[in-house]
C-alpha cells in the first residue's frame, strides 16, 4: 500500500475518531498515522518527531519517493550504494563541517549535541557516559538529554557493517563550539543493548571523537528513561522494576 492509499484510508477512519478532529488532538493523530506506516517509512520519519499531520504526510511521501535505490550497506570494502538494481562505486556516510547554514538543495532539520568528543563530555557534569552493545561489540556511549537525536560515529558504522539510509533531508547539527555539522545518513532501527535491554534506535552518522554512540532525547523520551546526573545513573520507566546501576 502506498502512502497515498494509506492516507485515504486513514482520513476515512478519522470521522470515527471525534477526539482527533480538533486541533488539540494533532499530536496524538500524528502518532496514530505514524504507527500505521510501512516500517521503513515509519523508522525514517520518526527521526523528525513531527506533530503536524500535513508535514508528516509530506515527509512520508518524500521518503517513499526517494527510498527506491537509496538504501546502502557498509559490508565489504565500503558503502555500496544500490541504485536501480545496480551497485555504484563505494560510498561512505560522511558528515561535513560547515561555517554556515548551507545544506545543498535538500530541505533541512536542526539537531543539537552538547558534546561530540569524550574530552568535551568529561567536563560536563550533566552528561553520563557508559557502555552499550551493538552487534556484539562493546561501545562507548554518551547519554545526553541535550541532544535532540541519537548519533553514531561514522567509523563504527563501517567497522560494524551497519546498513545506512540516505535521508530525504539534511540534518544540520549544532555543536558546543557553534560549528555546524551537516549529515544525511542514518542507521534505521539499529539494535542497541543497554543494561541488558534491547532497543531499536535511529542513529544519525556523525564524526565523533572518543565516543561511539550518543543516545539523546529521542531515545530517552521514547523509552521513559531518566538521567540522574548527581548519581550518574540511568533510571528506567516505572514499568521496569530495577535499582539503577552506576554508569561511570
Automatic annotation (TrEMBL):
Please list every transmembrane segment annotated in the UniProt record, as residue ranges.
Answer: none
| Residue span of region Disordered | 74-107
Superkingdom as given in the UniProt entry: Eukaryota
Q: Which residues lie in Polar residues bias regions?
A: 96-106
Q: What's one Pfam family here?
A: RVP_2
- Which InterPro entries does this entry report, sorted A to Z? Peptidase_aspartic_dom_sf, RTL1-rel
What's the protein name? Uncharacterized protein LOC113850909
Record organism? Abrus precatorius
Instruction: Give the taxonomic lineage as stored in the record.
Output: Eukaryota, Viridiplantae, Streptophyta, Embryophyta, Tracheophyta
Q: Gene name?
A: LOC113850909
Amino acid at each position: 500500500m502506498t502512502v497515498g492509499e494509506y492516507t485515504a484510508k486513514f482520513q476515512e477512519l478519522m470521522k470515527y475518531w471525534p477526539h482527533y478532529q480538533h486541533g488539540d488532538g494533532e499530536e496524538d493523530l500524528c502518532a496514530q498515522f505514524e504507527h500505521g506506516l510501512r516500517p521503513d517509512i515509519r523508522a525514517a520519519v520518526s527521526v523528525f518527531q513531527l506533530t503536524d499531520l500535513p508535514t508528516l504526510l509530506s515527509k512520508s511521501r518524500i521518503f517513499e519517493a526517494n527510498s527506491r535505490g537509496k538504501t546502502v550497506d557498509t559490508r565489504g570494502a565500503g558503502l555500496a550504494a544500490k541504485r536501480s538494481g545496480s551497485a555504484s562505486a563505494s560510498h561512505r556516510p560522511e558528515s561535513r563541517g560547515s561555517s554556515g547554514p548551507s545544506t545543498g538543495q535538500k530541505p533541512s532539520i536542526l539537531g543539537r549535541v552538547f558534546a561530540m568528543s569524550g574530552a568535551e563530555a568529561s567536563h560536563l557534569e550533566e552528561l553520563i557516559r557508559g557502555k552499550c552493545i551493538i552487534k556484539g561489540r562493546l561501545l562507548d556511549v554518551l547519554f545526553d538529554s541535550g541532544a535532540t537525536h541519537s548519533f553514531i560515529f561514522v567509523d563504527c558504522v563501517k567497522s560494524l557493517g551497519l546498513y545506512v539510509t540516505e535521508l530525504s533531508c539534511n540534518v544540520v547539527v549544532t555543536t558546543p563550539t557553534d560549528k555546524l555539522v551537516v549529515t544525511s545518513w542514518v542507521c534505521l532501527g539499529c539494535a542497541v543493548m543497554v543494561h541488558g535491554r534491547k532497543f531499536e534506535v535511529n542513529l544519525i552518522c556523525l564524526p565523533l571523537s572518543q565516543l561511539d554512540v550518543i543516545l539523546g532525547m529521542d531515545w530517552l523520551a521514547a523509552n521513559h528513561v531518566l538521567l540522574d546526573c548527581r548519581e550518574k545513573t540511568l533510571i528506567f520507566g516505572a514499568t521496569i522494576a530495577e535499582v539503577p546501576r552506576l554508569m561511570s
